[in-house]
Structure of Lactate dehydrogenase:
Amino acid sequence: MPVITCVEDLKRIYKRRAPRMFYDYAESGSWTEQTFRENTTDFQDIHLRQRVAIDMAGRSTKSRMIGQDVAMPVALAPVGLTGMQCADGEIKAARAAEKFGVPYTLSTMSICSIEDVAEHTSKPFWLQVYTLKDDDFMKRLFDRAKAAKCSAAVITVDLQMLGQRHKDLKNGLSAPPKLTVKSVANMMTKVQWGLGMLGTKRRFFGNIVGHAKGVADPSSLSTWTAEAFDESLDWDRIREFRKMWDGPLIIKGIIDPRDALEALNVGADAIIVSNHGGRQLDGALSSIRALPAIMDAVGDKIEVHLDSGIRSGQDVLKALALGAKGTYIGRAYVYGLGAMGEAGVTKALEIIHKELEVSMALCGHTDVTKVDRDILMIPRDFSDRWQ
Ligand SMILES: Cc1cc2nc3c(=O)[nH]c(=O)nc-3n(C[C@H](O)[C@H](O)[C@H](O)COP(=O)(O)O)c2cc1C
């Protein structure tokens, strides 16, 4: 077994073990992938201010996200088709999160259903909700979330239509994968993945198949989003969803301060500053660069979370220092899952936790909730380079 020291190591193993179609699905941004790239490189533009001879004993990364205790302020982001990266992937990721003490967010476009994940875990998880035209489906989705005791709903507002990711079209991405000469030849080299898939019945979109009506090809993500997603979504419609769900509500996919104010007016408990990991509007600002203006607009009125581009505990620390109360990892845990199943997700969380704790301490802090902007050295024009 190789020595795994960072999230990049997990990615290398994942690349070897997962079918090309699903690796490409995760490791893509839309169009030129500019935003996908800048999500990570912009974190590197920010430096940390090292301090010395400060008592570093008794460190704590414990915090709270939407009033819930977390072992560190890092949740697992909703990732569609997680159960194609590794058999029963959503259940494995949810279990790893539960044991670690961080929230797990199940995607609407998951392979394991809400009920499946609830049955195989013992603590409440969060449900991510895509906004579909079908009102009955939406009401039932919220009802199913309540019945499964989900402790928050995360409404994603940046995917009224799907951003184009070239590789998914070229690979003919679907769940289960369509059997072509190319896909079969590739899958035959992924023995561990194939054995896992043969051993599970969960190979379809578990929240959709049998629950939604009138979609021609429910195995295809692009057909699905084009036919079922609500292109006319607006804040009034989001207000209707707020009425369907009386529990904690998080609005995901905010990059502009004006939209942050709208989310506040809808009565959300938190927002996630996110550009969907660079998978939607190519050319949009990276999340970390967008964060300061959003903090200025709503930071004292609503809890602000951030995702997109986090690959290390240092990235988490930078987001927290800029005012985020919580963060999410997407690809970072998918790499772990595709590399080593549940143990790989745990490994990703352990790596990020250690990096967060050590970096925080070397910046002179022992309590993650007390970290502030003072630990950062930020280029003068970091957040107002453009008009
Ligand atoms: C493979 C993949 C699938 C995703 N599926 C969903 C989804 O179903 N719902 C959603 O709200 N966001 C989805 N996202 C976006 C993530 O929730 C999150 O915003 C993003 O992964 C954060 O960026 P990071 O991967 O750089 O950490 C997906 C991201 C990836 C990489």
User: Anything to note?
Assistant: Residues 24 and 167 are 6 Å apart (CA to CA). The chain has one domain: 7-47+69-358. The first strand starts at residue 47 and ends at 48.
